[in-house]
Amino acid sequence: MIDSDRLAALYISLQGSPGAFALEFALASSNDERLKIVRQSVDSITADHVQTRQLRQDRTEDELTIDIVSGLKNMGFNAWHDAQIGGHTDISFDGKGGFLWLCEAKKHGSYDWLLDGFVQLESYCPGIAGQNAADIIIFHYGRNSIQVMERWTDHLVAARPEVQIQPTTTDPHVRSSTHSHKGSGITLDFRHKIVPLYWEQMQDAKGRRS
Amino acid sequence: MVLKDLQDEILKKWDDVPAASLSIDILSFLADLPESELKVLTFRTLAGAAGRKPFDADLLAAINILSGSLSLLDAHAFFVDENDKEYELDDEEFAEARRSGEIVHPVSGELIPEAANYIVPFFVPTDRFFKAVK
Q1: Taking Cα atoms as reference points, which of A185, A124, A194 lies closest to residue A156?
Q2: Are A90 and A136 in contact (CB under 8 A)?
């Protein structure tokens, strides 16, 4: 049996629980680590939302955003909705070492609407060390979220050719991009994440809905 | 800033979060301890302060509240070898051990797998904590 003071005991106790992210964040000593953990936490929260999407069909953009903020706060993170950081940010999150992560959360309606979100985010981003990473979260209620993500990044690059889209990761619902902060010149690390919320009530062989 | 101000700040930032009251319980417990007993605060110690025996998500959230942007606790770690000899790790060594799952014995140079079995994380209060409570 592992001594309960050991890190291994903590990992075993917290495996699969939101506490695992809180543990890693409490132990993190660099802003790179903090950023990785924030994004993993957001992924975990939005995965729960996708699994329960049938209960989230009539939510507004603000309500969906607040759902994420609540999830982060419940892990002990200092996350806020609608804080004033360079403007009204949808989600802001700070940590030790001057760490700041921002997020614009948009319900997909048009690609120009998403582009507005991108422009807002880059204007809010301070663009200094530890404060140069942000996410765009796209809540998508339609079909084929992967296609929407591809079209979004095409639209972004057409409007902003200086934005570099990184090769697709293992998750087809996520893209990364980099471009320079207009003020500071630092490279901005943006992640684009689409949350597929499409849900259709099942019908049986006789056309009855369940 | 005094202890009451910190408590108010926690309740304002994390209203409706169960971990907020746990973090205040931990803070109050630590504020009553003599400085000599604040040198090495393990997760087990903090769990006791919060009245929580197992390590659960709310306890970790409470510790995250105190060690995050509030900056009241700093994380450190010991490596404890098979002879129970303790070596404090610096931030880079601790981060690398968590990342790779391995650790190099500081004296023998032996590469030890399953590093988490040999690492004891702990916290130390920050200057901000001491200014508020002592």
Answers
A1: A194
A2: no
Mutate to test the interface with B, among A31, A73, A80 (most CBs of B within 10 A): A73
pLDDT, position A204: 73
DSSP 8-class letter at A161: T
Give the separation between CA A144 and CA A19, rounded to whole angstroms. Answer: 32
Average pLDDT score over chain B = 93
Contact at CB, B57 and A25, closer than 8 angstroms: no
Instruction: Tell me the average pLDDT across A111-135.
Output: 96
User: What one-character DSSP code corresponds to residue A173?
Assistant: T
- Do A29 and B14 make contact, defined as CB atoms within 8 angstroms? no
**Run of H or E including A39:** helix A31-51
Q: Kindly tell me the sign of the dihedral angle through the C-alpha atoms of A69, A70, A72, A77.
A: positive
pTM listed for this prediction? 0.93
Disruptive mutation site among A2, A5, A13, A70 for chain B (greatest number of B CBs within 10 Å)? A5
Is it the case that residue A2 has pLDDT exceeding 70? no
**pLDDT tens, position by position, B71-116:** 999 999 999 999 999 999 999 999 999 999 999 999 999 999 999 9
Q: Which of B56, B69, B84 to mutate to test the interface with A (most CBs of A within 10 A)?
A: B69
- Contact: B60, A4; criterion CB under 8 Å: no
**ipTM of model:** 0.93
* Cβ contact A26–B17 (<8 Å): no
Q: Where are the alpha helices (H) located in B3-126, listed in sequence order?
A: 3-13, 18-31, 43-49, 57-67, 91-100
Q: What is the dihedral of CA A16, A21, A26, A29, to 10 degrees?
A: 120
pLDDT score of A205 more than 90: no
Contacts with A5 from chain B: Cβ below 8 Å: 42-44, 120
CB pairs under 8 A between A and B: 119
